[in-house]
Amino acid sequence: MFKWQSSWCGDSGLSDAALMIYFAAPTVSRDHDVSELLRKRYPQARQIGCSSGGEVYDTGVLDDRISGVALRFERAGFDIASANVCFDEDHNTGVELASQLLRDNLKWVFVLPDGLKVNGSELVRGLAGGRPGFGESYVGLDGLPRALQALALGVYGSGSTGGWQVFGPPRRITRSEGNILYELDGAPALNLYKHYLGAEAANLLRSALLHPLAIWAPSQDKQDVVRSISGVDEASKSLIFTGGVPEGCSAKLMSASFAQLARGAALWAEQAQVSKDHQESLAILVSCGSRKLLMGQMVADEVETVKDVLPSEANITGFYSYGEIAPQGFTGNCQLHNQTMTITTIREG
Fold first, then answer.
1. What pTM does this model have?
2. How far apart are CA 158 and CA 345, in angstroms?
3. What value, to the nearest 5°, has the Cα angle with vertex 134 and ends 232 and 190?
4. Cβ atoms within 10 Å of 257's Cβ, excluding its own
5. In angstroms, rounded to a whole number, what is the distance separating the alpha carbons of residues 321 and 53?
6. Cβ(213)–Cβ(253) under 8 Å?
7. Which of 21-30, 136-145, 282-291 has the highest mean pLDDT?
8. CA 134 to chain centre
9. Which of 74, 96, 257, 286 is most buried (CB neighbours < 10 A)?
10. Mean pLDDT of 103-116
11. 246 within 8 A of 184, measured Cβ to Cβ
12. Which contiguous run of DSSP H or E holds residue 336?
């Protein structure tokens, strides 16, 4: 693992690394040639990375840094797919990425899209369909990170958790378009949120971090996903989410305490951890930037709870994102999540 601000910190022994995964603060990407910095340290490695809302390094949560991990495989192989992001073509982008990776023994796919320009729900549908039968967002492949790009790393030869609790009666999404929610039970969605939030509605976007929305398809209440509000439209009384909110789905408001959020991370770490016999492992944590804003200085608690569960010598890296792509806990189907932490553990067996 490594981190950089004005100088390097961390292992430099893998000068012959084949792959390097990095996460860089937008301020660093603006002021420095991130790709060249990394190339000097790992001259043979392919580079895949993105901008972040905070960088995870071991048990610490950093800001204004580069962090990441250099990898060398003994038996596994990998490919990197790339595609440009075009407006309202997110499904096709997913299909294109999947088509570049499809071959035997694909074990894991790590996807890095432009988090501000992509409807993650449609991208995931495209990725799945490609298989046979709020700030800045940059993605980099062997060069300067840039917007309007989506990457997918395929390794040949992971799930999510939130810690949230639902409250209030279930509602039906009666009018929506993509990631824009207009009506719940025939009433303006924005009005309903303001009613529940009461005095907190004066600072709606901040308060909404405490109250994301759980949505699920009819008769599939154990297959819910979390959606976080990214904007509001007072004129249409609508809410803008970071993922799809399909008409006909049911929805409930959610809430959680800081302690519940940290416990949620620990629960998934217990499910994701590798055997204690395999100390040589890597854990990649992708947590929602909204959780970081919400938890403030306590954000390191959820990373520390993960470290306590994983093998003592496991390497931990990751970043804070606009949304997380992972299998749904009950079905195993890959979906876009918000306000969650995803944990992937990797080892060569």
1. 0.72
2. 6
3. 15
4. 11
5. 6
6. yes
7. 21-30
8. 14
9. 286
10. 85
11. no
12. strand 334-337
Element (H or E) spanning 255, and its range?
A: strand 250-255
d(CA 146, CA 141): 9
What is the bridge-based pairing of β-strands 19-24 and 46-51? parallel
Per-residue pLDDT tens over the stretch 79-95: 999 998 887 888 899 89
How confident is the model over 233-288, as pLDDT tens digits?
999 999 998 788 999 999 988 876 556 666 666 665 665 554 445 556 888 998 88
Residue position matching structure tokens 């603006």: 30
Q: What is the mean pLDDT of residues 123-142?
A: 73
CA distance 125 to 335: 8
- Provide the token pair at 135: 């700030």
Name the phi and psi angles at 18, rounded to 5.
-90, -25
Residues forming beta bridges with residue 8, ordered by sequence position: 4
Number of CB atoms found within 10 A of residue 331's CB:
11
Tokens, residue 208? 């909404």
